[in-house]
């Protein structure tokens, strides 16, 4: 079960509900209307067995929270204090790691302009008020599932990139060591030739650095890299 702590204050403060774990999905609700915010908060806890809900009255504080925390779904209403829900969505999309964050906007039943504007600004979906609880629950569950799959794919890609980078570095090091040993082996038969090869590698690296070549290009002179500074 979730451990829930509610902190109520003046407009501009927020109600915070904190779960026991760090892996449960987090839903961010931005709604300055107390009754609607309470309804959404209670409904959000039915989306999955365990949910963490952060409910804000003030959109600026919600944006500040997103700057330092991760959410899995955001629900905001169109009519917000100080800025509209459309502007809120635009600002959220500009935050790091929020490009694919699911965003739902609540609009009046016949306000097509608000829905179109929100979708154009980056909203993932829209719901009309009064809220149909069944529709809201199904849509939010679907978005949470999609975002969870997105994070799995993203993390897998990051892991693969790391593995490729490490493997490439290992191959480069082995190549450098092999060529350096070949040069050293040449010294046993002809010391002048071995030293000459190493000098040429030094010259090549200096020329590359003088031409402002990329650091990786400079490292492509393995004899110099293998000998160290």
Automatic annotation (TrEMBL):
* Cleavable signal peptide: none
Q: Where is the Response regulatory domain?
A: 26-144
Q: Where is this region: Disordered?
A: 1-22
Extract the SMART domains matched here.
REC (SM00448)
Cross-referenced Pfam families: Response_reg
Superkingdom of this protein's organism = Bacteria
Q: Where is the HD-GYP domain?
A: 171-229
For this entry, list what GO says about its biological process: phosphorelay signal transduction system
State what protein this is by name. Answer: Response regulator
Species of origin reads Thiohalobacter thiocyanaticus
């Amino acid at each position: 079960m979730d451990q829930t702590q509610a902190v109520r204050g003046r407009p501009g403060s927020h109600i915070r509900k904190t779960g026991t774990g760090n892996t449960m999905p987090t839903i961010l609700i931005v709604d300055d209307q107390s009754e609607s915010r309470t309804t959404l908060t209670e409904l959000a806890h039915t989306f999955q067995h365990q949910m963490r809900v952060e409910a804000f009255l003030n959109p600026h504080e919600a944006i500040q929270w997103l700057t330092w925390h991760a959410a899995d779904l955001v629900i905001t209403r169109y009519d917000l204090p100080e800025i509209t829900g459309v502007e809120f969505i635009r600002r959220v999309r500009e935050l790091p790691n929020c490009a694919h964050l699911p965003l739902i906007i609540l609009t009046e039943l016949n306000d097509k302009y608000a829905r179109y504007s929100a979708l154009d600004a980056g909203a993932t979906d829209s719901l009309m008020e009064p809220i149909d609880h069944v529709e809201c629950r199904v849509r939010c569950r679907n978005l949470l599932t999609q975002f969870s799959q997105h994070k799995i794919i993203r993390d897998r890609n990051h892991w693969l990139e790391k593995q490729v980078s490490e493997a490439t570095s290992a191959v480069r090091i082995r190549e450098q060591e092999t060529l350096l040993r070949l040069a050293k082996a040449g010294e046993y038969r002809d010391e002048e030739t071995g030293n000459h090869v190493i000098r040429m590698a030094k010259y090549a690296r200096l020329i590359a650095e003088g031409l402002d070549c990329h650091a990786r290009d400079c490292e492509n002179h393995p004899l110099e890299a293998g000998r160290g500074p």
